[in-house]
Amino acid sequence: MVTVGRTGAAVARGVNALRGKATGFVARHYLAWRSRRGLDPMSLIPDYALMPLRRDGLDPVPALREAREDHPVRDFPLPFGVKAWLVTGHEEAREVLGRTKGLSNDFNHLIGRAGIASGQNPGGLGFTDPPEHTRLRRLLTPEFTGRRLSRLGPRIAEIVDGRLDAMAEMAERGEEVDLVRDFATPIPSLTICELLGIPYDERDEFQALSTARFDLLAGATAAFDKISESLVYLRGVVERQRAEPGEGLLGMLIREHGDELDTDELAELADGLLTGGLETSASMLALGSVILLRDADVAAMVRDEPDSVHGFVEELLRYLTVVQIAFPRFATEDMTIGGVDIAEGDGLLVSLSAADRDPRLTPDPEVFDPRRPPSPHLAFGHGIHRCIGAELARMELRTAYPALLRRFPALTMAVDERTLPLRGTSIVYGVDALPVTLGS
User: Fold this and answer.
1) Residue 236 CA to chain centroid, in angstroms?
2) 413 bridge partner residues
3) CA angle 217, 221, 226 (to 5 degrees)
4) What is the pLDDT of residue 117?
5) Residue 150 Cα distances to 21, 31, 283, 362, 417, angstroms
6) How many helices (H) and strands (E) does the chain have?
7) pLDDT digit string, tens, across residues 344-403
8) 2 pLDDT exceeds 70?
């Protein structure tokens, strides 16, 4: 057997890195070529590569558990020879998400500049590295403290009550009530409108810009088109706010930091809050309602024990983990994660849904137990890219579930749960319709 010394190993790594860069260059240009001709790049991704986004009902597919049991960091090759690793263990996931050095979230690593049409780079917090990420987050963080968010509490309660009134009126008219359309989606939509200062009459357009980008079965081209549409729309909102700053977050940022943030940056920040706070909260409200509708004892607990909603929501966040994978990270230096050597240029895909079902996190993780002690779940991520709106999402969930159950104690599902249109392959897992009977 031939052994390779340190110098030889370094040379080998350099050759592999150059090979990887060349492969990536060709791949990016090929993807761009296909996109320009209306051919969806997602059609090139093999079925196994979509495994982390698939579910069996509300549960991650068994293959994710088997992957974690095999090794919490395992080789996960992607098309065009892209070297990647799938991280499924909770400890390993926290290590990756918590690293501030050696890993990059920059969007250009994901597609490459050659594969991105003008206006399709979402920027914002999720796809930005320090020091730019640090600068942007510093501007936003004060608005997402518990004290600042508390001012939204009464407005969230009003929004929830308004939706419950509308549902009651629909039922009285003999119309079908759909918890996705009539409850789970409008509550976070109106809340984000309130937060940002978006006019309510633009809610439907605002809402439609969020969903398609997460559905990989709809294709990458459709997803990036939605990003582009969203940024165009939000640039218009920002320009109107520059002329006449409102009382929402955008108006505040323009008044206090207008010289530090250009229109594109403000639109990207708003787009990040839209995508991070609308579709995710809507999915949580809908899927959480499925759990309440299937278990009368849990529903009674949330309805009749006011203090129980905190534990219920935390367990629900862990159990559902609707954001199935974190933003991809790319190694900017060699490192070791979970005993596995990661080379510079490798990608890391963190399966949040698998990590939150790790037995090392909590006993019997496959069981939904609303009375279990809260665990350090990863539903909102971890580290510098942890969801900045986590507390706002908790406020919405803690307000909406008890109000729904108290207003409609006889609420039942109007269809067999097995027929619910659960999403097939989506970064944000959810259900597209949830017909219910309100009862008397």
Assistant:
1) 25
2) 436
3) 95
4) 45
5) 48, 46, 23, 31, 36
6) 18, 12
7) 989 999 999 999 999 999 999 999 999 999 899 999 999 999 998 899 999 999 999 999
8) no
Rounded CA Rg of the chain: 22
pLDDT of residue 283: 95
CA 430 to chain centre: 11
Nearest to 85 by CA among 382, 348, 362: 348
Confidence check: pLDDT of 23 > 80: no
**Residue 210 burial (CB count, 10 A):** 24
Q: Is the pTM value of this prediction over 0.90?
A: no
- The residue written with tokens 């079902």 in the block is 357
118 vs 151, more confident: 151
Decide: 323 and 97 in contact? Cβ < 8 Å.
Answer: no
pLDDT tens digits, 387-401: 988 999 999 999 999
Smallest CA-to-CA distance from 349 within 11, 49, 4 is with 49
Give the tokens for residue 113: 């500049």
Burial (CB count <10 Å: 0-12, 13-18, 19+), residue 170: middle
* pLDDT tens, position by position, 134-151: 888 888 888 888 777 888
Assess contact for 371 and 127: CB atoms under 8 A: no
User: Which residues touch 365 (CB under 8 Å, ≥6 apart)?
Assistant: 318, 356, 357, 358, 359
* Placement of tokens 């890391």 in the chain: 348
